[in-house]
Fold:
Amino acid sequence: MSDTFDPAPFAPAAVSRAGNRSLSVMDQIREAILNGSVSAGERINEVRLSKNLDVSRTPVRAALQALAGEGLLDYSPNRGFIVREFPISAIVDAYEIRAALEGVAARFAAERGLGSEERAVIERSLAAGDSLLERGRFESGDLTIYRDINGDFHEALLAAASNRMLAEMIRICHHVPVSSSRNIVVFQYHDVRRRHDDHHRIFEAIQAREPHRAEMLMREHVSVVKASLVKSLTERSDTTMALRDADVG
Amino acid sequence: MSDTFDPAPFAPAAVSRAGNRSLSVMDQIREAILNGSVSAGERINEVRLSKNLDVSRTPVRAALQALAGEGLLDYSPNRGFIVREFPISAIVDAYEIRAALEGVAARFAAERGLGSEERAVIERSLAAGDSLLERGRFESGDLTIYRDINGDFHEALLAAASNRMLAEMIRICHHVPVSSSRNIVVFQYHDVRRRHDDHHRIFEAIQAREPHRAEMLMREHVSVVKASLVKSLTERSDTTMALRDADVG
DNA sequence: TCAACGAGAATTACATACACTTTCTTCTAT
DNA sequence: ATAGAAGAAAGTGTATGTAATTCTCGTTGA
Structure:
């Protein structure tokens, strides 16, 4: 599909992020890319896009440049922007990279120690996970709940690492588009149980100020997602519960 | 200093990179930041900057946005761009991150194997280093020569990893501004000797298809630079030969 | 004394017109 | 027919004017 994606289940400026059209436009374009409304490798036409979004070319160009900075678009002088392609191999690699980076984050956290706020968030996420997993199986919707719990844990830990570059790089890894909806990792109850157990151990390692152990545990923790993805890519067995890989890693 | 840096040892459009003023402007601003012509934390005034560079605000804004994407500037809506600050701790951390990333690159290279072109470059760099180090000491200028040899080795290896995201992240690590000229690492003959020896071992590990070993070796190889930086920050002993850390890591 | 307010200045955000480059089309010569 | 060139069409790059927002600083009132 071309960049004629429908810009309006909402009024043009209704969603606008904090008084800045460029940012709003940026979100819309990103969304369109991640949705697959505009397909990979496709060249983006500024005038058409600006007409669809009902703004001038100026904020559109700004948004495109920002998205290129995020790595979602490629830019060629005098030729404009094209949607970057992410082959399966790149998606798989991203997990390795993320594993290494989150490992470093865990190490930093163990070296620097947790702030009271971060520790509180982590302990809450651990407790929430415990109670969710307590009854030994998943109801519908539980996986979505755990996704948030998981997110809290990883975010708090990343905050504890207190390094912006690291945070940004990990964010980039998270934002790799999953090209096809088939690239999902199947997580069942016992998988999540194991992953939550990992969280406990990582937390313990950080509390005990064991940087190396924390790093290794986290690295393994994330690497497993990659392994699962590779497995599901080769097997392609459709089990009941599925979740986007990035969301539960 | 404000953003009134002198834009012209050259004529305004003389250096322009490939028919695109934005890119040329971008280079100039980046240079000014890395030079320290504009100091960290400083807010950038678009109109003044565009007057100094003798272009309109449009390409200036484009350049600023792109530089924000590179991580050199911070952007706040309706407030513009400010030069991002890189405290010492961030610079030190960048080496840890880079160590982890280059470690992954080495592993990928070992897993995927070297292309004939990459292998040739690496072997050439190893041979060149051997002959340079042969006479057991450094003449003036030798360190500069080795800097290039070192660069070739790391670049070829990164190419062998064949992953763009990884390459970009490592590039970002390299581009962290060294805030002060005092943040340099002292490398003497025997340090370089050891580092070159590392290169040989890493190459062997890759050739032998030993991913894990290649990763560990590379990681240690880069980590040492961080350790040296930390050491030189505490000691501050000025030895004869000095080189920018990033250049010989 | 100091916080809150507000008018004017400064600065960024956006729209639009025009210039330049690329790309597509078509015509010509071989 | 086909390669190549010329011209038209489309698309990106830049300049500039205007709107909207933030900043500055003096004033007011408690």
